[in-house]
Amino acid sequence: MSDGLKPSPSSGKPLFSLGQVVATRGALNTMIEFGIPPDRLIHRHITGDWGDLCEGDQQQNLIAIRSGMRIFSSYRFSADAKIWIITEADRSSTTLLLPDEY
After folding, report:
1. Could you tell me the CA-to-CA distances from 89 to 4, 9, 15, 30 in Å, in that order?
2. pTM score, two decimals?
3. pLDDT tens digits for 48-95?
């Protein structure tokens, strides 16, 4: 199981625009509980470290960057704690949320 804080495999350069960044109360509480800085997750998301996604979903994100579709990341911190990050297709906003808040 991932600790959710592995280093980004990319060059560290942003791959797309985030738009307005918002987080749900549940995501904020989870980050506080696990000592996860929001900017660390956002950095991973924007530089192509999409966390616990399978290879197919990671490839879909690469396609989404080029074609203007939604970009999705998933970071697991324990068996019961996971945060999703979703950047909308129009790049107007990025949301940090828990899966059950989707």
Report:
1. 24, 23, 14, 26
2. 0.89
3. 999 999 999 999 999 999 999 999 999 999 999 999 999 999 999 999
Q: Is 34 helix (H, G, I), strand (E, B) or coil?
A: helix
The DSSP 8-state label assigned to residue 99 in this structure reads G
* Dist. CA 5–CA 3, nearest whole Å: 6
Q: Measure the CA–CA gap between 51 and 41, rounded to whole angstroms.
A: 9
Q: Are 47 and 70 in contact (CB under 8 A)?
A: no
Residue type, 4: G
Termini Cα distance of the chain: 23
pLDDT cut 90: percent of the chain above it: 87
State the chain's mean pLDDT as an integer.
Answer: 91
Instruction: Name, in order, each residue with C-beta under 8 angstroms of 32's C-beta and a sequence gap of 6 or more.
Output: none
Integer Cα distance of 92 and 19 in angstroms:
4
